[in-house]
């Protein structure tokens, strides 16, 4: 058998798993099975090393110093921008603005674009499927401008009902803001279709990519996005770093989001002029180490190959779907067709409340999320107070699914 | 951290109250109603009391949520009838001590069936569930004391 150090041709989730130190631990005396990836992913050694290495060698402020460390920090920061931008298909790194995460990216658009482009009587179209972070910023904008929020409704599988799109989209629609993939149900949304319809009436399109850029590379232009918001921490990167991609001409005409250092050109007593994009939107010392870590995360994922990851996740989800149905009284929410579903299994169990499910699973070492998943409108639509959610990523294995099913049997034995 | 035992959390009495809650439903002749929810998990309780003078004449609730929150409020309502407002406040205080891990309080017989919930104190993220009904009770007591029913 050859032990030559050649790149693996097949995807090995067990080898991938060993790259993630946090996965190698016992919880309540049992090996950890981490199935809360839609909340946040674990971090590979490569990302941890990149962040530590930055602080150990290159730490300095960016775009300010003449000295060597400042040059290195600036290079690392801007090089990460180029790589993370490329992950979503940006060929111009200036179109990528660093933010704290998806939430801040959406708020940035609501403030810096929305206040100048949305007025009284205008409409913003979102969907019932949205995470609160893609609802509340638009409610705030609507309240400040007198605009009106309209909603795409859902069918019984948690998919958009596009039949009444013609009446929802009018010349009053200034923005369509929708998620690429639902965090609560895993629905993969037909964003291309809605982006095209939105552009036909002259509306701009924001895509909440928090769960979208995670499982596959994204091509923002092919999707038809004007704005694409996403986070580092859900795709192996650190918390506290995310990005807004937007088309250059939109960013150029937008007002700054916050005022401070780095975003200025010349400051006078009464007036100042702004730096160019993207720095106009990055007031203050940014999360440099976070950006470096995010860059390392996309390098890590690129190195593994997202086609292989997608195929692996599909296999795990299919297996989970099949095995969970062995149990009595389980209802799986969301689309039934695998093609319309990302690696999320949101479910209810007869008699057992999701909160109780999560506690019992935790004592078995299995981490899942229970609750409304920051999507109270989705829960209301499903007619449930909450769901339990197991969400999978590249390092999850069929054995993890087996542990989940065994733990759910334990739930049944208590709540029968 | 030592692994808490599930059996200490899901006592038979708790599961029984969860499946067959006592005093669940609308209280027609109520003098006070308090709505409490836990935005993290969606548990919710509407506690309704009929207070006459200084005495709780009747207590009912409407709600939905996990076994701990619903069993806790169910047991609580069985202990409120005939109590004075300050006595009910004392019950809430004593039970809160149990939830914060006070072993003496956990042995206090005056807590009646609420003692079945003492295992919750070993599951810190679930303590809020057990206290939801008592949060509603405290608010109801405060309102009743501020505006005594005639």
Short synopsis of the structure:
The complex is a heterodimer of chains A (416) and B (150). Chain A is an alpha/beta fold.
Description:
Chain A is α/β, with parallel strands linked by helices and about 425 residues long. Chain A contains 14 helices and 17 strands. In chain A, the strands form 5 sheets. Chain A has a 7-stranded mixed β-sheet with strand order 4-10-9-8-7-5-6, with helices on both faces. In chain A, strands 13-14-17-16 form a 4-stranded antiparallel β-sheet, with helices on one face. In chain A, helix 4 (about 100-115) packs parallel to helix 5 and helix 12 (about 355-365) crosses helix 14 (about 400-415). Chain B has helices spanning about 5-10, 10-20, 65-80, 85-100, 105, 125-145, and strands at about 30-35, 45-50, 55-65. In chain B, strands 1-2-3 form a 3-stranded antiparallel β-sheet, with helices on one face. In chain B, a hairpin with a 6-residue loop joins strand 1 and strand 2 (about 45-50). The model of chain B has no long low-confidence stretch (mean pLDDT about 95). The interface of A and B includes residues 28, 29, 353 and 410 of A.
Descriptive tags:
heterodimer, A: 416 residues, alpha/beta, seven-stranded mixed beta sheet, 17 strands, globular, B: 150 residues, alpha+beta, three-stranded antiparallel beta sheet, 43% helix
């Amino acid at each position: 058998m050859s032990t030559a150090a050649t790149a693996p041709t097949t995807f090995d989730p067990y080898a991938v798993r060993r790259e993630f130190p946090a996965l190698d631990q016992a919880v309540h005396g049992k090996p950890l099975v981490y199935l809360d990836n839609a909340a946040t992913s674990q971090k590979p050694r490569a990302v941890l090393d990149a962040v530590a290495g930055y602080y150990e060698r290159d730490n300095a402020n960016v775009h300010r110093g003449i000295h060597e460390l400042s040059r290195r920090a600036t290079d690392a920061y801007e090089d990460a921008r180029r790589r993370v931008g490329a992950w979503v298909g940006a060929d111009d790194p200036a179109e990528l603005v660093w933010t704290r995460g998806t939430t801040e990216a959406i708020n940035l658009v609501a403030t810096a674009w929305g206040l100048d482009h949305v007025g009284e009587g205008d409409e913003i179209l979102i969907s019932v499927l949205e995470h609160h972070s893609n609802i509340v910023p638009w409610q705030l904008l609507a309240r400040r401008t007198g605009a009106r929020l309209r909603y795409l409704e859902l069918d019984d599988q948690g998919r958009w009902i596009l039949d009444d799109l013609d009446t929802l989209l009018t010349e009053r629609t200034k923005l369509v803001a929708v998620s690429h993939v639902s965090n609560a149900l895993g629905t993969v949304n037909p964003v291309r279709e809605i982006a095209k319809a939105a552009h036909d009436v002259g509306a701009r399109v924001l895509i909440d990519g928090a769960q979208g850029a995670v499982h596959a590379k994204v091509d923002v232009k092919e999707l038809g996005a004007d704005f694409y918001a996403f986070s580092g921490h859900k795709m192996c990167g650190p918390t506290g770093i995310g990005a807004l991609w937007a088309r250059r001409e939109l960013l150029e005409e937008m007002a700054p989001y916050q005022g401070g250092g780095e975003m200025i050109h010349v400051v006078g007593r009464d007036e100042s002029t702004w730096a160019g994009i993207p720095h106009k939107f990055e007031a203050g010392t940014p999360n440099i180490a976070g950006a470096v870590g995010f860059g390392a995360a996309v390098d890590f994922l690129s190195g593994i190959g997202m086609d292989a990851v997608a195929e692996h996740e599909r296999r795990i989800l299919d297996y989970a779907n099949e095995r969970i149905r062995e149990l009595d009284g389980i209802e799986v929410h969301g689309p039934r067709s695998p093609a319309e579903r990302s690696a999320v299994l949101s479910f209810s169990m007869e008699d057992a409340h999701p909160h109780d499910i999560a506690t019992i699973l935790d004592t078995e070492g299995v981490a899942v999320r229970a609750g409304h998943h920051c999507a109270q409108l989705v829960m209301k639509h499903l007619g449930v107070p909450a769901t339990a959610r197991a969400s999978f990523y590249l390092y999850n294995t069929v054995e993890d699914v087996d542990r989940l099913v065994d733990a759910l049997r334990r739930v049944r034995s208590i709540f029968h | 951290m030592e692994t808490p035992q599930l059996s200490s959390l899901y006592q038979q009495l708790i599961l029984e109250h969860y499946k067959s809650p006592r005093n669940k439903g609308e209280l027609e002749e109520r003098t006070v109603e308090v709505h409490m929810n836990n935005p993290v998990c969606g548990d919710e309780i509407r506690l309704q009391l009929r207070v006459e003078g200084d005495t709780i004449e009747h207590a009912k609730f409407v709600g939905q949520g996990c076994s701990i929150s619903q069993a806790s409020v169910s047991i609580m309502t069985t202990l409120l009838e005939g109590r004075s407002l300050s006595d009910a406040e004392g019950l809430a205080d004593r039970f809160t001590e149990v939830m914060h891990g006070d072993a003496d309080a956990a042995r206090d017989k005056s807590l009646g069936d609420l003692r079945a919930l003492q295992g919750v104190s070993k599951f810190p993220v679930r303590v809020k569930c057990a206290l939801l009904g008592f949060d509603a009770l405290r608010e109801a007591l405060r309102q009743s004391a501020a505006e005594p029913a005639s």
